[in-house]
Amino acid sequence: MLHVEKIKPLRKEFLESIGFYWHTDQDQTSYVADELVVITPQEAEAYYEAANELYDMYAQAGQYVIDNHLFHELNIPFNLVELIKNSWENDVHWHLYGRFDFAGGVDGKPIKLLEFNADTPTSLYETAIIQWAMLKANGMDEAKQFNTVFEALKENFKRVVVLGGDTEDFAQYYEGWKILFSSIRGSIEDENTVRFLQIAANEAGFHTDFAYVDEVGFNGKEGIFKGDENFEYWFKLVPWENIAIEEGDLALLLDEIVRERQAIILNPAYTLLFQSKAFMKILWDLFPNHPLLLETSFEPLKGKKQVEKRAFGREGANTVIFDETMNVIEQTEGDYKGFKPIYQEYVELPRDDEKRSYQAGVFFAYEGCGLGFRRGGLIMGNFSKFVGHRIKD
Fold this sequence. Notes:
Blueprint: E1 4-6, H1 12-17, E2 32-39, H2 41-68, H3 81-89, E3 98-103, E4 112-117, H4 124-137, H5 149-162, H6 170-173, E5 178-182, H7 188-204, E6 207-210, E7 216-219, E8 223-226, E9 229-231, E10 233-236, H8 240-246, H9 248-259, E11 264-266, H10 271-275, H11 279-286, E12 296-297, E13 306-310, E14 320-322, E15 328-331, E16 341-345, E17 357-364, E18 368-376, E19 385-391
Parallel strand pairs: 2-19, 5-6, 5-10, 10-11
Antiparallel strand pairs: 1-2, 3-4, 3-17, 7-8, 8-9, 12-16, 13-14, 13-16, 14-15, 17-18, 18-19
Helix pairs in contact: 2-11, 3-9, 5-7, 8-9
């Protein structure tokens, strides 16, 4: 049985004092659970190694997709294909961060990849700050976590400049380049997550600013602007597929800006390849029966319990769990029905004594850097709770 321990919850006043306002769900229950998943040092190390190994596999598979022009198979919008290829081919388009979702890893269960949120992953603030504060507020050793998210982000911002070099050489290579950070107006969660990233970039040594997306100026020949000020880098917490589908003119402008080398966008367009759940079918083709992977297909699997997901579905929407004879066990509705379905072998998530399921999320910023959990039912959705963790020897 999963080892979970109760803790004293963080007060809402304290959470808001550190910029965390999305602490209460619509049903008025706390989004942050008053408990911790207890793991061993060996389990923490296994999550770290799994994220690192999988990212290497994603990089190999990404090259395979590019070489074989498999964009349609991944449901990639046609108006982003050239931008994806351009961003892939030049190392200056550095992947800043993403989050792997895993089943298993605790209670003796093997780690299995569920998906990779490579473009606009959520729960960054929770993983980096909130669960650390949980330990501190409960008189526990805050170092007893797999949680170096903030330091890893700082280092990876430096790699945006030094690329494969030593991050200690950042000041030597840095030429005063500026990063503009943007989120959609009206979402305090998105805005404060972006401002958290902005702090990490500031501490790394960059000049930064913030603007809502509707305040940003774009010019194909001249780059990206806030007012009259030009920025060499733009970080946007807006999914690439949303830009392609809902803001086609902007997609074309960004393609031109990158092609003309007027600005670099974080996360790069090629992260949309990794974001597509259809990518896991490519992984299975290239690394069949790999111990970290679940069988994945574009067609229903024969005689297996399985999950149907949509290529760019989010927060568990439009997900169906089938039994071995394709009878529906559980399903959710949502806005992602128009995206391509994929079928992934079902694996049971670890459960507590109340039969609640726990899904691990491991952030990746050049390497695995932070673990958090979500607690919910058979399908993790919008009302799943964030659960911190503690390493116990």
